[in-house]
Amino acid sequence: MPEVAGLTAQRTGWNTYRLTWTPTDSTGDVVYYIWQDGELLSSTVDTSADINVDTDSYHVLYVYDTSSDEPPPVYSGRVDITWSGDARTEKYRVERYIDGEWREMQTITATGSLFHRFTTPYLEDETTHLFRVIPIAGNGEEGPAQEYPIIMCRYPDIPSFDVVQGYDSTGTPDGWRVTLT
Amino acid sequence: MMQWFCSGATRTDEYQADVAQSIGGYRSSVPVSFLAGDRDNPIGNIKINCISPGNGIGEGVIIANDGNTLSWMPPGETTTGTPVTIDETYQDYVIAGVDTDKYIIITRMNDNPFMGQENVYIHRLFGNAIAGVDVDITDSTAAPVDYHSVFFCPPSPATGFTITTDSAGISVALDTPVDGALTATPSALSYSTTVSGDVTGGEGVWIRRETPLAASPCQDVDLHVTYTMDGTSYDYHVSGGYRVSDTSLSGYMIYQGETLLDVVQEADFPYTLSLADGTHTITVRKRNKYGLTTVSPQEKVIAITSGSQLPDRPPRPDVVTAATVQGGKIRVRAIMNTTGTGINPTGWKVLVKISGTMAGAEDYVTVPITSTGSGLLYLDYTWDTVYTDGAPLDVWVHGHIEEDDIWGDGQWIAYTLDRTPSALTGADIFYDGYMAENVKGATAPDTTVFVDSTNDIKFIVKPGRVWLYYQENLVWCTTSTRTSRMLYVPNDYTIQPGQTVATAMTTTQVIEKAGDKLYINVYDTGRMEIDPVAKTIRLHTLSHILPPAETSPPAPAWSRWDSTVFLVWSTLSGAWGTVWGVDDDGNVRVQNAGVSIGMTTADIEGL
Lengths: 181, 607
Fold this sequence. Notes:
The complex is a heterodimer.
Chain A: E1 8-11, E2 16-20, E3 32-36, E4 39-44, E5 48-52, E6 61-64, E7 80-84, E8 89-98, E9 101-109, E10 115-119, E11 128-137, E12 146-151, E13 161-167, E14 173-180
Antiparallel strand pairs in A: 1-2, 2-5, 3-4, 3-6, 7-10, 8-9, 8-11, 11-12, 13-14
Chain B: E1 3-6, E2 25-26, E3 35-40, E4 46-51, E5 58-66, E6 69-73, E7 84-85, E8 92-96, E9 103-108, E10 117-124, E11 135-136, E12 145-153, E13 158-164, E14 170-175, E15 181-182, E16 194-199, E17 203-210, E18 216-229, E19 232-245, E20 251-256, E21 259-264, E22 271-273, E23 278-287, E24 299-305, E25 308-309, E26 319-324, E27 330-337, E28 347-354, E29 365-368, E30 376-383, E31 392-401, E32 406-407, E33 411-416, E34 457-462, E35 466-470, E36 475-478, E37 484-487, E38 493-494, H1 501-504, E39 511-514, E40 517-521, E41 526-531, E42 536-541, E43 558-560, E44 563-565, E45 568-570, E46 575-577, E47 580-582, E48 588-590, E49 596-597
Parallel strand pairs in B: 11-19, 34-38
Antiparallel strand pairs in B: 1-12, 2-15, 3-10, 4-9, 5-6, 5-10, 6-7, 8-9, 12-17, 13-16, 13-18, 14-17, 18-19, 20-21, 20-23, 23-24, 24-25, 26-27, 27-30, 28-29, 28-31, 31-32, 31-33, 34-35, 36-37, 39-40, 40-41, 41-42, 43-44, 44-49, 45-46, 47-48
């Protein structure tokens, strides 16, 4: 049974959680491997582990009892756009196509490195997002833009919903209504 | 080394980079992209033009052996290949690992000497010319089988050329171009999961893709390539990925317990459920067209009696802490956040029991919640039973609504009773110094200050967020002349916006406030900054002028008995120490310093 059973996360502090799970056997010799967001976080022979997380963040956790098991891929909602620069370029303007027009997201100064990176905001799922990078020379002259279409495929957001009692037109209870909130 | 190019050009070596058009026709001048490299701490004056497919996915390293020489350590390797001297700018150089299938092609962009090393994180590429473009299996215009092609071009004849694939729905066929062009009828070729032949020039590979039956966020296409060229055997993989969508999957999945009731669209809400009397767990997950569904969805638990809904259950407490107080009783504290829920718990249900023993609802103690309305609710309760040292205890806390006896989900922690005095290094720094005589019996300098009957003094910086919790009625501070000063703090004292604390406390420069922050001078060089907005506590030198020059303590705070212990810098010993000590009556208490602060763990940050 590579993935442990009974995995629970109990909040122990503002940014800390304690993971606990059911031991695979009673010998105490089993090493458990804790994966967070697709990366191996730690290993332990205990049946609990403390983790730190950022506030308002979203994490996918797996615990396995073998080193050979790996979690399924993580589908991030952010994408790194990277490009190789040119020594003559002073800065790069990153733009995003929104509502029919290109809007500036960030201007990145070329600090001598030829490699540059822009991390997109959290992107809407099931949507093609269009970004472009425009090189700008020291005299302000702009070079040709390089476009980066991004098809976002990630885990959907958690729907917020409520369940309330429903009533018919006479005010008589009529089932229960699930509403998105 | 074999070069791979897109197809679909209208003449040989025309620029054609559109993967969707890489179907037959002539060889494009655009190489096939197999892998992408994300560079960390890059060597500034080189540009990576190509990462060979043989490298695979993972982390490789480029090392500058000297100002003109680079070497490459591919992913998964522990040694680099032969260093390559790169003395010309704007020329392509191949830097290979020990396995020459694993190489990168770089260009030097200026004469600056190479320095250091960089990591290159190599990723799979979606939608390249090997994998093809994404597929929507609900697109009625899409063919059940599609074809795309690439060219492979060895610099000299290759023998024993073989491509094998075990990717789902993928088969391949070789195609020798006629007058430079691949066939216009790829379906007429013979496809297999293994093809082979001798290659003398630019050849074509057709990739036949059967439409998968199910949606997938990642469908791999992997071609295993082997051949011999110029006496060297080559063996590597070229790969890519594509996505399969099924728009009929998109929607909201409504569960009752573990049972999927329905999949509906946003327009279908409100969605009507028929629920019998009892307690029901309703879950709504969203599923996208790639088949990915919400992880860890919100659950809604409703209890129905005689067709009517009982009040919502209180939420599970966020934080539960336990500590041993004097005499061995267990002090239990918890926080429950009911903000925005509209739920008004009337009490807490608290249980401390020996681990492994059975307990029922009757064993819980009900602790009333005196505040009204929702928000952050705090439990601070001392369990009366005295246990022996080392007893493994379970501590349970639930929110509770007295009417209808509604219990929220419980939060549980394990706690082991331990009254052993701290053996931490430096624990006696303070009372060994010069203040030990003042632990008890000091006369209050300000008799107007209210101290509550529990001898607990709360200093609330911002209600509900950060507060300081002192024991023994005292906040101990020292001035820069090392004269001890005792400061009484009123219970539940709240700093008002803009209030000058030093004036309010009728003492001088022991506690001061600037902006939203509170500063306590804790020693002759100790200065503690409490920021209720950022929810941080930091220690600084006393002499700093705002904004403070921060000094870092060597360790974070930790829990000990009924307080949280902070390390304090002692200029007497030149070390960090704690403030715990043993009184004459044998009880362990906070001693002689104003920096032993009790907080819930929720508020311990920034140290």
